[in-house]
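note to self: dont lose this again. the chain is below, predicted strucutre after it. 299 aa total, dont forget to put it in the shared folder this time
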Amino acid sequence: MYEFHSVEELLAKAVDLHMPISEVVLHRQMEDSQEAKEAIMERMRKSLREMRRSAASGCDKDIRSTSGLSGGNAYILDKKIKESGSLLGPVLGRAAVHAMAIAEYNACMGRIVACPTAGSCGIVPAALLAMLDEEMVNEDQAVMGLFCAGGIGMMIARGATLSGAEGGCQAECGSAAAMAAAAVTELCGGTPGMCADAAAITLKSMLGLVCDPVAGLVEIPCIKRNVSGAMIAFSSAQMALAGIPSMIPLGDVISAMKEVGSAMPLCYRETASGGLATTRTGKKLHEKLRREGHDVSGR
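---
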């Protein structure tokens, strides 16, 4: 009853059943797994709490990655915002801190929730945790936001890819940001159609983004792209909530992302052989880490 295989089918199911996307996805999970709603909700709640824990751990001022390329910036950002206020406003300010903290914690080999991937792990949690911080939602609502995000992620994975090695960073940070945008939109009272518009606007804004990790490590520019992705998610949600549609529907945007990813040269797909990884500074960092004995082989 709750099965869907495309964005169009997901939206039609939500409209027919008078349910938000999150409820359709939750009921599909119940149908597929034959588990009780409470058990599935509790697992997702544990994921949300793990996101909160990794965000807090990533704000440690002394945390550093093995390479030394990252760590401590979330603490700096958090401290600056607390002292001087946020240029972005309270919600986006908190989201920026959370996105950086979780992405840095991942680079430091901390335990994170890959949502949908480790390289883009800060974006969806950042959006939901920021809304929790500002008391825009409660925990149960944030959990449902994860189901909404998951539904969009399922459709992107089915129609394209979530892998940077296959489709570039548009498939990782782009997908995560689209998922976050849909979740924020739903949590703010948006319709399923608005959620799809928010995801589409986001993915269009990140179409063609390459995966070019310096020294083959998920640190530069990955961590800061998590912050940027969270910001794009909120701006897209704001447009969708205002009633501004995406003229290209989400299903078509996903198809375009697949086409772009397939056409993208291998050097821009997580191989560390193009883009920022092969700039003068990128090469110097690669060589420095190689001399120090780090595994910077790339692919």
